[in-house]
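Figure S7 source data.
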Amino acid sequence: MTEDATGQAVRVVIVGGGFAGFTCARRLCKTFARARRDIEIVLVDPHDYMLYTPLLPDVAGGLIDPRFVTVPLADALPKVRLVVAQVESVDLLGRTITVRGEHHPSREIGWDRLVLTPGSVTRLFDVPGLHEHARGLKTVAEALYLREQLLHQLEAAEHDDDPRVRQARRTVVVVGASYAGTELIAQLRALADAYADRRGLERAQVRFLLLDTAERVMPEVGTRLGDKVLEVLRARGIEIRLQTSLRSVAADHVVLTDGTKVSTHTVAWVTGVTGAPLLSSLGLPLERGRLVVDADLRVPGFPEVFTGGDAAAVPDLTKNGKAITPPTAQHAIRQGKALARNVAAGLGLGTSKPYKHRDMGLVVDLGPGFAVANPLGIRLSGLAAKAVTRAYHTYAVPRGVNRWAITLTYLTNTVVPRPLTRLGLVSPEESSFAASEGIGHEAS
Ligand SMILES: Cc1cc2nc3c(=O)[nH]c(=O)nc-3n(C[C@H](O)[C@H](O)[C@H](O)COP(=O)(O)OP(=O)(O)OC[C@H]3O[C@@H](n4cnc5c(N)ncnc54)[C@H](O)[C@@H]3O)c2cc1C
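Tokens for the predicted flavin-adenine dinucleotide complex:
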């Protein structure tokens, strides 16, 4: 038994059960079980599942059932005490956190070691109307809403006599042309195409617009693959406006930064992330909204407090620590393992090591028959990249049943088009930035 000074089992509290927190909890369980030592691991998250975010564009595109991208924490981590609640505050000196759940009032939980992995939220800007009328892509509610909203607008357009209103309903604007926004627009396009084919509509009647302030789409994959992406998106009828963003958003239109007015009822805002709101309440230094941390993932000045994933500005030792690691699942998973190793080392098991990981590249699914990928620097596009991308995601989802369900869905989709049923389960309020991601006007 690993005990504190009072003879109690040492308690490690992990805040956030995403890629980093989930991996850390799982690895800690294994490490202590192997050493036949007991510790208490408490995982706090407002959701009872770990969300596999890289497949959210497939959920928005109606390809994958949302349940398949959620891994139940209680099943996957049976030895961990799960607290389904929001951490409201952290007392770093008193070593407690205060949590509030849907079914219980605020209460305190003490800790001996604290792992802060609350991830990130959509980065919002002060664009009038953005909070009310646009949606992000960080949660199941947002992904489902975008799918249902598109189908709802396409159906409503069929009953509108006014051609201008019809066209507005058949227009989708996505802001953010890095991998998440690009995957999203490709999947929404595929959903609209499936709808058009089934309802006898010309595909070109549904207009898609992708905006970004950058000069290129998907700078993460380099110029050559970026050019390929541009070519494929354009061939699918997606208009791309670079060095352009939104000046304002209203219920039935947006105004672009170049002054153009575009009538639309469907706007997605996928322009990057910033650290979870909890981080700014800690009184600790932040870099780009993320917690400043040492290379061994300890918070400076608090040797019992660790952090990693999107929540942390981890020095990138492959770049001599002059940059921070990007907010990707690839780093969050590996930082989760490093967190477990370094927490265990502080409790007498193994040795602590600084975090160092060379980027393995990206895989980006761009809808029917196409993807781009650069695994280990090898540039791939088309069907080869598609196979690598799907194999990678299927393998990376941390639960066998989910992997099975996703594989079957992909196989089914090679012979049967994606379903177009609209369930109307997520309301505009539930999918708003405030309700879904916990960020409001003050976050802009
Ligand atoms: C659409 C999309 C596609 C992506 N595709 C890829 C990809 O292909 N490859 C890749 O490498 N990365 C991808 N990413 C990035 C990747 O999802 C993130 O880098 C990763 O999720 C970060 O993991 P994390 O554990 O730090 O945070 P998260 O996975 O965001 O988990 C944080 C957890 O903390 C919880 N939490 C937040 N606040 C609190 C609180 N106050 N109290 C308790 N719990 C809290 C949240 O509910 C959440 O469960 C994608 C992201 C998006 C949105």
